[in-house]
Amino acid sequence: MNITAFLEAVIAWAEDRCDVVGRALVGSYARGVARPDSDIDLVILSESPADLLDGSWPARFGDVQSSSIEDYGASKSRRIFYCNGLEVEFGIAAPNWASIPLDAGTKRVLTDGVKVLYDPKQLLRAANQAARA
Question: Could you tell me the domains of the chain?
Answer without folding.
Answer: 3-132 (3.30.460.10)
